[in-house]
Each structure stands twice: as C-alpha cells, then as structure tokens.
DNA sequence: GCCTCGGAAGTC
DNA sequence: CTGGGACTTCCGAGGC
C-alpha cells in the first residue's frame, strides 16, 4: 500500500546493504508526522560519493591522463563522472569529477588512496544523511511518499493491511530495502529519493519522555526510577520499582513502546545516562544483546546485529557518548533540561529546586523538598513511597521547564531555517548549521567544497571589535545607536567570502579593499560571494517572517504568530553565528584574512562615525563594537528624572523630545547602503565608574526600565546581597542622589558586620570542571593547576563528601567563612541548604563587608567616596537631616 | 603588608 | 578539536 504524508525529520542515519550483488546504502529517517505518527522512512536511490580534481590543472587542458586509474581504486564504484568546471579553494576554476564509493564506511580509505595518487579530494567529509538533504534541497519538514512496510498499533488505521501488520511479512520486506528489522515506531515506509520533497514548516507534535533515577550512595545501584511521557500535552506517568535489572528493563520497555522523539530529565547528560551505562555494564557483562534489554533505547530493532559492537563503537541500540561530548541515542534527541535552563535563564544556582523556584515562585508543590538526597539509602529504607513520589516529581519538572523555555519549538525552528534535521539543530554546533546552507549553495553554484581542516592549527589571534574609553560619572540624556547586524552587513556590502578573496596579488579598481591590511575582494558584479548571497537571503527571510508575524498578530492567529516568531528568532541566531565560524581557523570555507577583514571594516566604520560626531561638537560617551552612545544636546538645566509635579513635567518632556529627535537625526545621517545605524534607546541618564563594558542607564524610550551591563548585578559569581545593593545604589545614582547611595551602602555594610544578614543572600556560585576517574573511583580535578587553591573546587569536594551529586560544569554554591585554623586561604562551606536543608554556615563578616566595600566602592569612588570610606561604617544620616 | 603576576570565570 | 576577541574581576602564590 502506498502512503503520502507530511513529516518532520528528527534524526537520520545510514546502513550499508547488498541489493542483489550491488553494494547499496539505505538512509534511515526517523520522523514525526504532522498527524503525530512516528514514521521511519527507508530511503534508497542515493549513492555515496566524493569529488576529485587535479590540483596541477590550470583549467585550460582536458581530462588528466591518470583519470583512467580512478575506477580501479579499491572500493570505488564505476567510472568517475565529470561534474563540470568548479572553483577550487586556491582560486582556480578546473574540471571536477564525481567518484562513487562502495559504501559510507569506505570514504576515508578512498579519500586517502585518491589523494595519495595526486588528486585533490573534495566534498569528502559530509555525512550521508546530510548529503541527502543537500542534494534534494530538503529541510526538516518534508512530504514523503512511499510504500507502507509495517504498521504498529498507533499507526493510522487507513495504512494498516494484512501484510503491514504481520511482523514476519513486514520484516522480510524491510530487509529487502536495506532495513535491519522491525523498528520500534508507528509505521515504516520505503521511499525512493524521488518520493521526497520539501514542505512548508509546521509545528510537529513531538513526543518527549523525561526520566529520573534514584540511586544508592553506598553502592551506586538504582533504587527506583520514574518516567513521564508527554504526547501532545497528555502525560502518562510510570513510577518504577523492583530489582535493579527489572527497573532498567521496565524503563527500556517504556522508551521502546512510547517511542519518544526527545529524551529529557534534569542533568541526564552527566548523571542518569552515565549511571545507566555503568549499571548496565555491571549487571550484564555476558552479551550485548542481553544488555540491550536493559538499555536498548536506540530507535532500531532489538536484534543481535544492532546490539553488536562495531569498530570502537557500541551497537546502535545503546546511548553513546563520544569523547566525553554530547550523548547520541540513535533516532532520538537527548535534551537535558539542565543545559536548556542554564543557557536560556542563566540562573545564579543550577539545582532543580532553585530553577523551579525561579520559574514558578508561587507554586509550593513544585518546590517541595521532603527527601534528603544526601541520605538516599536511609530515606529509601525508611519511606520508599515518598522517595518514589519525589522521583516522579523530578521527571515532571524537566518537561515543565522545556515547555516554559519553548526549547523544542526553538530547535525545530532552527532546523527549519538552517535546513538540517532537528537533532543537528538541537545537539550540534554552529558550524554544522552553517555547513548545511553553505555546502548546498556551493554545489548549486559550482564551487568545490573543501574538507574541514584537521588537527589543531595554532594561529595568531585576529583583532576584534573596538571599545571606547569611558569616563567615570553620570551623563544626562544620552542616545544609543546600533548597527543592525553589523558583521553580516559588512560581509554582504564588501562581498567578503573565501570565494571572492583575491589571492594572486592582482589589483583592480572594482575590488573592495579592506581599510588597513588592504585585503582585496572581487566585486559582487564580477562574482557574488557564497556567504554574502546566503546572508542576504537570510536577512530577507527574517523580514518576511517578521511581516508574517505582524499579520498573524493582527488577525489574532496565535499559533501562526508563535511559529513566525520562532522562525524569525532562529534566523537571527543563525545570522549571528556566521562571523564566528568564518573567523575560526578550522572551518572549511575560511581564510585568516576573512575574519580579520570583517573586524577591520567594523573598527573603521565605528571610529569614523565617532570622529565625525565629535567633530560636530557632540560627546561620545561610550562605544563597543557596533554601538555608540552620544550625549544629546539638552540644556544642562533640564531634569534627568521625571518630576513628581505636573508643573515641572514640561521641561522633562522637552528634554526627552530633544533626545529622541537627536537620535533620529544621527540614525538618518549615518545610515548608508549596507550599514544601517538604528536608534535603539534613549537614556535620561548614563553612569559608569570608568571601566569598559560596565555601565547602567535609565531607559526612557522605547520602554521605561533600568539597563545594567557587565556589573556584578549580572554575574552569577556575585552574591544576592551585592546584586540587590548595587541595583538600589544605581537607582539612586541615576536619580542624582549620590549621598543617599553612599548612606544606604554603609547601612548594608554595617548589617553585614553585625552578622544579621541571611546567609542565603551571601551564596557565591561558580562553575567547576572535573572528570570522573573510573580507575581510582573518584573525581579528578587535575584540569586545574592548583585545584585546592580555588574556592569553588573546595566547595565541590565538600558536596561530594556530603553524598550529593557533583556534575562537571555545573555551578557550585558556597559561602565564605572564617579561614580554617592555620590556613591563610578563605574558608569555604558548600551551600547545601537547597538540597538537604539544615543550618546554614556562619559567614565571614569581614570578608563580605570587604567585598561589598570593594565592589560598591569602585562605583562611589566616582563621587569621591572610596572603599575605605565605606568601610568606616558609621552612617551619615545627618546628611539627610537638613 | 604590599605589590605583581597568572589562572580562571564570566560578560558583552 | 568542531564560532570570535575585549575586557574586568577575583583569588592565591610568591617576591621583597
């Protein structure tokens, strides 16, 4: 029976098989259909290949003589096919040939053999799934038509036939097209590449499973587990108890039967998944297929060949982590709620309790902590039911966190705009997203695709953005202007690309020449660069999504507005990633000159504007890379803060209007083709203590708010009392009331000295690295030159000693106490109150008073009150008595 | 006790 | 191995 459906590709892989006597490679695409069915597509019809060219060719002669030898190279299939003239990385256009390879596992050896015999091999490091999307110009959302091979219980009724519901018939048919058996999905289709076409993006109804383990501190074994599945908003809970092997088997059954696209949990990357792996190896060292019943979470058939170890790789059934990096679970996407929360919220502390409190401050049920995780064995023995409840709650929270952060929708949108599978968008890096767009266009426009540079290449750093000196003190009425997408605009307007870089030293008046190093790029009329063309396309598409968003809002179509907003945001993220990738030294389409030229133009542009503004007699207060802060021509007598009395309001409104007009006029004056200077915000006052990247401003347009950049307030390694005191201080300073600021600060320092401050206000937290030493069975902090010299490493060690989880990279909270006896270093006590309760430690009064005085004193020094002055303590209330 | 330096983290 | 550099701050170590 044939079938036709719109689906979103979650993930893909490929497997080699024999079609009669012909070696073939089938591509597996794990998808979620628009209607919610999990669908596996087995796609045939694409053969793996690489491209070759003769590096000695200058492009004028015909085929090189040794082309005849290529087909006899080991693992090469058939004769090379000419693919026409292509521009090589060295700037020469020469003939290229496509060489088919027997299967994807042989690409490495063929690449080596061909380059040993004098060929330049290109397009030779692209994953085969990605090759499918590139060659067919597909994104994650596709329309697929093919033959139904298997239908499970949840498959659409209309697709079910006697054949497709009979496992033995289905399995035989699946193997005929290269599949490995019955995959744990709703339905399986066999497709030809002609049966795939791109579809408009739609929100796929993904299924997410969250899980959590409670484990013994004494023996590491699993006490109980829980899983919760979210299927289109409907949740099913699975509390699991029993012997350890039974727990793991049950959890694996849940994964295989519920068949989720995403697998989440809190800290699964660093705790639950490694623990599962360790326990599965401990329980079943006999055979891999036996272990698969414990941890066969991969979306592949449960059979011997999928369980079998490959060359330095476990079978596809098992979750796998390569070189201590992200986990892969074949056909699914591991998405750690901790990592998502950390990236989007940047919480000061990172425990699940703390993050829940941040997101749902009023919901006590979500924050309830009635189990002492550091005494898990005792808790489990005394009250297993409560422990199980606690475990279930900790699986529900990650789902709520992902919902709140819209993590899944964001990944899908990013996949959609970068034209990759959702797993690449979710778990891979910027260079892969960009690869997807750049290689696609290179193929279409006849540019050879060089391989990614191998190995660490030490290289001089390129110069970055320009940062203007900032004077200490308050400035009234300031406008802030920003270049819109500065780096992308520069790349577009100067046609900066590895395909346009002039490499042969020639000079032509049409060239675009960089301001200082005089790097040359050919004009866009002669040849539009690959990257400039892509960026222009992205800018246009962002404008289109924004327009569609506005239209949807107007029509009250919330779902469409949400989708368009996700898409425009994803385009922004993607555009901003381009510069970084092209300024790196490993990316395939880079040259050291590219990154350097971009920043050169950026510095040149911004400095040019600064000097013209200054020549006109205005004060440039600050500038960083793409922004400029200018004092508006407002009368010095005008009020900075909005007056209480209506009568005085006029002067304030007038000053504001003058500022707005000034901002508009600057934007208009300095905007030119390819460099749009936007009037971003108007400030009624601006303050810095005189350090770059540190300032505050009172925004009066387009919203009213306080803007704080760089200061401790924004840093997670500050402590709450410092952040809140500094924020209060800034309010007063921006109001012009510096005396009140100093007085208030002294009051806070006095209270700290008295010891009457809640220690929760004094928790400092910093991330701490480390790796598990499985030989010594302990944590290893040797990444640090002197681990015990670092307060946060000491705090991490205390956490571990207390029986609490430590996860590398996670923030560790601590309070500074008086130094331990005979020690000059700070005293440190890990902050465990969030997790285990108990009494907080006694803080070091002088340390905290000193740190407040130092940080706040830096600021008040702008008014003549230094650190020592603040520490003197006595409040100057008399100042207010008059 | 004062100063400088380097390691490390964090932010823009 | 798998986006960049500029900049500030904190802490401990070590010299004098």
Protein architecture, described:
- The chain has 882 residues and is an alpha+beta fold.
- Helices cover 38% and strands 22% of the residues.
- It has 28 helices and 30 strands.
- The strands form eight sheets. Strands 21-22-18-23-24-25 form a six-stranded antiparallel β-sheet.
- A hairpin with a 4-residue loop joins strand 2 (22-33) and strand 3 (38-44).
- Helix 2 packs across helix 16 and helix 17 (486-493) packs across helix 18.
- It is globular.
- The N and C termini lie far apart (92 Å).
- Mean pLDDT is 92; it is low at 877-882.
- It binds a DNA duplex (12 and 16 nucleotides) through helix 16, helix 19 and helix 26.
Structure characteristics:
38% helix; globular; DNA-binding; six-stranded antiparallel β-sheet; 22% strand; alpha+beta; five-stranded mixed β-barrel; 882 residues; 30 strands
Spell out the blueprint of helices and strands:
Layout: E1 2-19, E2 22-33, E3 38-44, E4 49-53, E5 76-87, E6 93-101, H1 107-116, E7 120-122, H2 128-135, E8 141-151, H3 162-165, H4 167-176, E9 187-192, E10 196-198, E11 207-215, E12 222-231, E13 234-240, H5 244-258, E14 262-264, H6 268-283, H7 288-295, H8 304-307, E15 320-321, E16 327-328, E17 333-334, H9 337-345, H10 352-359, H11 364-367, H12 376-382, H13 384-405, H14 407-418, H15 422-427, H16 430-445, E18 473-483, H17 486-493, E19 512-513, E20 520-521, H18 530-555, H19 558-582, H20 592-615, E21 620-624, E22 627-631, H21 649-670, E23 677-688, E24 695-701, E25 705-709, H22 720-734, H23 738-754, E26 764-767, E27 771-773, E28 778-780, H24 791-801, E29 811-817, E30 827-830, H25 833-836, H26 845-860, H27 867-871, H28 878-881
Parallel strand pairs: 3-9, 11-14, 14-17
Antiparallel strand pairs: 1-2, 1-8, 2-3, 4-6, 4-7, 5-6, 8-9, 8-10, 11-12, 12-13, 15-16, 18-22, 18-23, 19-20, 21-22, 23-24, 24-25, 26-29, 27-28, 29-30
The chain binds a DNA duplex (12 and 16 nucleotides) through residues 323, 325, 428-432, 434, 452, 454-456, 461-467, 487, 576-584, 586-587, 595, 599, 624-625, 691-694, 709-710, 712, 714-717, 766-767, 784-786, 789-792, 824-826, 851, 854-855.
